[in-house]
Amino acid sequence: MDSNKFTGLSMIIAPVLAILAWIVIGIGVLGGASTGEPTKWIAEIGDNNEVVKYAFPLITVLFLLGIFGLNTVKNSMQGGPGYLLAGFGFFLVALGSAAQLGEVAFTVGTAEAAHSGDMAVASSMFAGAQAAGAIATFTTWVGIFFFGIGILQQKNFTPILGGLMIVIGIFGTLVSLIDYENPLMMIGYLGAVASLVWIGISTLQKE
């Protein structure tokens, strides 16, 4: 399998599976609990700690597979007018992904502590997860914004795609600054997945 095909497929399949799994687990397993309701969230992930322990890291890896495709796209832009901004955007997204790993680790720790009945530790772990998540989310959205500008400058994809990334980057940044736990953040996530899938399809068509 050549790099274009791998990149395209990873950006199409992995993010879609990740967002579907996140929605199914959130509604079907955790009963719609969210971090906006800390007590309910901690209780639910504690009751389902085995699911959290394995599913959350797997979902994160799937998202990272999709994001990794952005690196290949960025490298293909080298020498072009949009390369520097796309490179800076990817750098920020990569930093956000690292912080996201920290958020997942803290969330798994929260679930384990809650399952064991140690609510003091669970509360501390939850606070750590929220702090890491806020940093990860903000940094990632800003990175997507700059990547979108890079695409507009490079003109290697349709301008509509670049515009979409800019819009969701601004939207996600504003929501994360105002209220990181706001359910509206899901709109941004869906937009990000749509952007990755769009890039993946376009990459496959370039073969």
Structure description:
There is one protein chain. The protein is mostly helical. The protein has one domain. It has seven helices and no strands. The longest helix is centred in the middle third of the chain and has 36 residues. It starts with a helix and ends with a helix.
SSE-based structural type: mainly alpha
Task: State the low-pLDDT regions, or none.
Answer: none
Please report the distance between the alpha carbons of the first and last residues: 12 Å
Shape: elongated
Biggest β-sheet: count, sense, barrel?
A: none
Binned strand content: under 5%
User: Averaged pLDDT, please?
Assistant: 90
User: Helicity range of the residues?
Assistant: over 70%
Q: What is the string of SSEs from the N terminus onward?
A: HHHHHHH
- Rounded to an integer, what's the Rg over CA atoms? 18 Å
Q: What is the number of domains? A: 1
Count the beta strands. 0
Number of helices: 7
Entry summary:
This protein has helices at residues 3-29, 38-47, 49-76, 83-116, 119-154, 159-179, 185-205. With 207 residues, it is mostly helical.
Keywords:
single chain; 207 residues; mainly alpha; elongated
